[in-house]
Amino acid sequence: MRCNIFTQEHEIFRRTVKNFVEKEIKPYATEWDEKEEFPRELFKRLGELGFLGIKYPEKYGGAGLDFTYETVFIEEMARGGSLGMLLSILVQTDMATPAIYHFGTEEQKEKFLKPALSGEKIFAIGITEPGAGSDVAAIKTTAKREGDYYIVNGSKTFITNGAIADYITLAVKTAPEKGHRGISLLIFDTGTEGFSVGKHIKKMGNWASNTAELFFDNCRVPVENRIGGENMGFYYIMKGFETERLSGAVMAQAAAEYALEIALKYVKEREAFGKKIIDLQAIRHRLVDLMTEVEVSKRFLYYVIDKYVSGEDTLTEITMAKLWIGEMAIRVANEALQFLGGYGYTREYPIERILRDVRLYTIGGGTSEIMREILSKRLLS
Fold it and tell me: Where are the domains of the chain?
C-alpha cells in the first residue's frame, strides 16, 4: 500500500480549496464561532464549487472522484479555523446522504440527493436519542405504517444541523419487537406537521455547528421516503459509520497538524529568559516528539485511505484510525496550547478553539470505548 496517495491533480485541487478557505472561511471563522452559526448560503457556495459532491457521480451533480480528493478537501478546510462549520458540512456529505446514494431509489436520488449536493437543501442525520447514543439498537422513535404513510413519534438529541435542516435521514423503529432488526431509515421533511425543534444545545466546542433536540408528534411520512428495505436500517447505519469515522479521522489529523503549526510558529517568535522559546532543549524535544506522533499517524491514515479506496475490507483499520487519531489530536492540541502559555488560553489565538473542538473526536461517531470493543471482537476473538 502507498503512503503517498496524492498526484499532481490532487495538488491542483488542493490549491483550489486552499484559495477558497483563505478568502471565504478564515476571515470569518472567529465570527461564526462567537455567533454559534455560519451563513446557510455557505452550503450553496460549496455546492457551486463542487465540494459537496466530490465522491458522488456526475449524474447527481457530483464530481465523480474518490475519497483521496475528499481527504484533500477536509485537510484544507480544517485549516480554515472553523472545525464546527466543517462538522456541519461533513454531516451533509458523509453522514446523512451516503445511505440515499447507496440504498435509495433513483427517484430519491433525483429528489433529495441532487439538491443536497448542490447545497440547495441541508441535511441532518437523526440517530442519537436521550437514551441511545453509540447503542443504535436502543432507539425508541417509532414509525407505524398506516397505508401509504408512516406515523412517526419520538425524539432525537445532539443532532448536528437539526435546527437548520430541510431533511433528516431519520432512524426509526418500524418493528420495535425485533430490536436492531426492526430499524428503518426515512427521509424526513422538516416541514412536516407535528415536527418541532427543541432547545439548541450549548456545547463545549464546535460552536459554529448547530446542534438541537428534535421532536416528532404523529408526523406523517410517505412510505416512498423510506430508504431501502423496511427493517434494514441498522445495516445501512453500520455501513455508513465506516465513511463517517474515516472522515472524522482525517479531520482529527488535520486539526492536530494545524495546532502543531500554530505552536511551532509561536515558539520560533516568542522570547523567554533572553532567548527564543524554541532554543530551550525541553521545548525542542517535546516538539519533535509531537511531530513524530503526528507524522506516524498521518502515514497510517493514508495507508488506510488507500486501502479503503481500493475497495478492501477496512473496518479494522478505520476503527483503529478513528480511535488512535482522535485521542492523538486531543493530546497534541493540549500540548500546543501549553506552548503558548497564557496566550493559548485566550481567544486571541485559535488554539483554544481547536482544543475545545477536537474534544468531540473521541465521542462523536462512536466513543473510544466502543472503538476498543469493536477492535477487541475483531482482533481477539
Answer: 8-118, 123-233, 235-380
The cell for 35 is: 455567533
On the question of a common fold for 8-118 and 123-233, the answer reads no
Q: What is the pTM of this model?
A: 0.95
Question: CB–CB of 60/186 below 8 Å?
Answer: no
Q: Which residue has the cell 432488526?
A: 181
- Tell me the β-bridge partners of 150: 145, 221
- Extract the C-alpha cell encoding 307: 486501502
Q: What is the mean pLDDT of residues 332-355?
A: 95
* Catalytic pick among 75, 213, 244, 335: 244
Cα–chain center distance at 327: 16
Catalytic: 244? yes
123-233: which CATH architecture? Answer: Beta Barrel (2.40)
**Tens-place pLDDT, residues 57-108:** 999 999 999 999 999 999 999 999 999 999 999 999 999 999 999 999 999 9
What are the C-alpha distances in Å from 231 to residues 38, 143, 149, 173?
36, 11, 15, 8
For domain 235-380, which architecture applies? Answer: Up-down Bundle (1.20)
| 235 burial via Cβ count (<10 Å: 0-12, 13-18, 19+) | middle
Secondary structure (3-state) at 173? strand
3-class DSSP state of 166: coil
Q: Which CATH architecture has domain 8-118?
A: Orthogonal Bundle (1.10)
C-alpha–C-alpha distance, residues 14 and 18, integer Å: 6
CB 260 within 8 A of CB 350: no
- CA 175 to CA 181: how far, in whole Å? 8
Burial label for 36, CB within 10 Å (0-12, 13-18, 19+), is: middle
Instruction: Give the tens place of pLDDT for each residue, 190-204.
Output: 999 999 999 999 999
* DSSP output for 263-283: HHHHHHH-EETTEEGGGSHHH
Could you give the CA distance from residue 104 to residue 112 in angstroms, rounded to a whole number?
10
The 10s digit of each residue's pLDDT in 166-187 is: 999 999 999 999 999 999 999 9
State the Cα–Cα distance between residues 79 and 25, nearest whole angstrom.
9
